Amino acid sequence: MRGTKSGGHHGADEPSGRGGTSVLRQPKAVWATAGASVVAFMGIGLVDPILPSIARGLHATHSQVSLLFTSYFLITAVAMLLTGFVSSRIGGRKTLLAGLALVVVFAALSGMSGSVGELVGFRAGWGLGNALFVSTSLAVIVGAARPMGSSRDEATGGEGGGRAGGSAVAILLYESALGLGMACGPLLGALLGDMKWRYPFFGTAALMAIGFLAITAFLQEQPKPARKTSLLDPVRALGHRGLASTAAAAFFYNYAFFTVLAFTPFVLNMSPYASGGVFFAWGVLLAVFSVLVAPRLQHRFGSLKVLGGSLLLLAADLLVLGYGDHTTAVVCTVASGAFIGLNNTVFTELALGVSPAPRPVASAGYNFVRWFAAAAAPFLAPRIEEWTDVHIPFVLAAAAAVTGACIIAVQRRALTTEGAEPEPAMEDGATVFAG
């Protein structure tokens, strides 16, 4: 972890690594997986600009349509206990392809839904496929990526830049895919959804089918871990105080994050094009601050100061969003992307490096906790509005962000203790982890 007192061996290499040029010289397998990851992350924000259109088209209420996010992320959270279990038995390539196949099928079925209940159910299946793919894609990128560092290290995979450099490349590419996907998802949703709300689902199915073919063609099977992951390993990993604290803080942060993503489109009440433009700008800021700004701030101020400050700024932004006029709400929605980008990067690195658990296991436990908040926020926010008024959901989201910052401050000692990071035994000695 960059910027902490002893932030894990991989973090120390990243400031210099991110500045390297070799990140662009990657095998086709890496680009195929990263490209499919972009489309996978597009699926999260795809429905944002068309939520009002879906509600009208299926004669559904706002709270019913918000279940599209709830079912998706509830299944994603539970599936985090399955992904390591599956991938450690059938391998990363087969897990990726299984996830992609599920997304293709359920995205297409979503576009053919005749009721909001059907659509919510198909989004749950989509969430299962996305969990299998997204949780394995970072591991696959690590296994296939060329490390950043000297040309000698790149050629030999030596200690100077091999494993740590490969991790840095993978995190950079993964964060870039996330940011690009989150930016392009609403844009694709707006462009296709302006014609008909069903078209974005069919478009995603087609893009994921292309990703399936690319990975089939370019990605070779990755080495399997010597030890298979059990279903309970991620839960046991949460017994580590640092990882548990990271997951708890991320839970409250994700509640704030997905209040913005799932509830704000109803508040803005704009056309698909206008809403898509707002969330495209939001996604661009998310990508820029995640990939470019976060590393520099972490190197200068330390990860925990950046994280705590960004959570507090997100809370302030949410309060202004909730109580401002329409123009202010648009500006604050876009601005929240900057704080969300910072938080995403630091939370990812904390989860991967704070505990002695193998990275796939630590990541699964962390994601298992935090995605429950992503399921809760879309379900609760419109209902809270019905019970109170439009301001209170944002007040609660701001309070959640502040709670996350308080956990970071109180558990600072646990979060700055270096985990005894083991290198999982692999058939070829490679290090693999899942995000």
* DSSP E strands, number: 0
The termini sit apart by: 15 Å
CATH class: Mainly Alpha
User: What's the CATH H-level superfamily name?
Assistant: MFS general substrate transporter like domains
> What is the tally of helical segments?
18
What's the overall average pLDDT, rounded?
Answer: 81
Q: What is the domain tally?
A: 1
CATH fold-level name: Growth Hormone, Chain: A
Largest sheet properties: none
String of helices and strands: HHHHHHHHHHHHHHHHHH
What percentage of the residues does DSSP assign to strands (E)? under 5%
Structure description:
It is a single chain. The chain is mainly alpha-helical and about 425 residues long. The chain has one domain: Up-down Bundle (Growth Hormone, Chain: A). About 75% of the residues lie in helices and about 0% in strands. Helix 6 runs antiparallel to helix 10 and helix 13 runs antiparallel to helix 14. The longest helix is centred in the middle third of the chain and has 31 residues, at about 165-195. The model is unreliable at about 1-20, about 150-165 and about 420-435 (pLDDT under 50).
